[in-house]
Amino acid sequence: MSVVLVGPMGAGKSTVGPLLAEALGVTARDVDVEIEAREGRAISDIFVDSGEEHFRALEKAAVAAVLAEHDGVVSLGGGAVLDPDTRELLVDHQVVFLRVGLSEAVKRVGLGTGRPLLLGNVRSRIKALLDERAPVYTAVADLTVDTDQRSPEDIVAEIEKALP
Ligand code: S3P
Q1: Quick one: which atom of ligand 1 is closest to the CA of 8?
Q2: pLDDT tens digits for 35-45?
Q3: 116 alpha carbon – ligand 1 mean position (Å)
Q4: In angstroms, rounded to a whole number, what is the distance separating the alpha carbons of residues 72 and 115?
Q5: Using one digit for the tens of pLDDT, what is the confidence trace for 87-123?
Q6: Residue with CA nearest ligand 1 atom 10
Q7: Nearest partner of 89 among 70, 111, 112, judged by Cα
Q8: Pick from 7, 4, 3, 5: which is nearest to 109 by CA?
């Protein structure tokens, strides 16, 4: 079983993951990083060269593999929970939704370089994604943690205290 971090881009999943793992004495894996390593190209290149649908298929397989073999902390890409089979797999894990408000998310992703879904207008794209996905993150989560104006260490401490 793993502690799985879900939430939108800019929620801090990749930053909090390794810190939480260290606090819990386990290791962290980041599905986006593993997809890039396996493919030998950046996620933005996968989107551009092969399309979002292809990326989602790679993502689904990578999430299933990591959840099946890893016992620790897992950070998912922001869109992974949109897949119903992935949501089903999450039932067997401790899922933490890192919640972030619009302004803070925009600040954290900056110009959105490397995040293909934000191309165009970062703020309006993030707003649309937050509005559309917040109910999905809430539905899969055992725990929801607000991350606005908080340090990664503070967030880790809250998760650690709340875990069963
Ligand atoms: C995506 C989020 C990204 C990455 C891809 C798609 C999304 O991960 O998987 O660009 O659909 O929200 P992060 O949430 O780690 O930025």
Answers
A1: 14
A2: 999 999 999 99
A3: 8
A4: 26
A5: 999 999 999 999 999 999 999 988 777 888 888 788 9
A6: 115
A7: 70
A8: 7
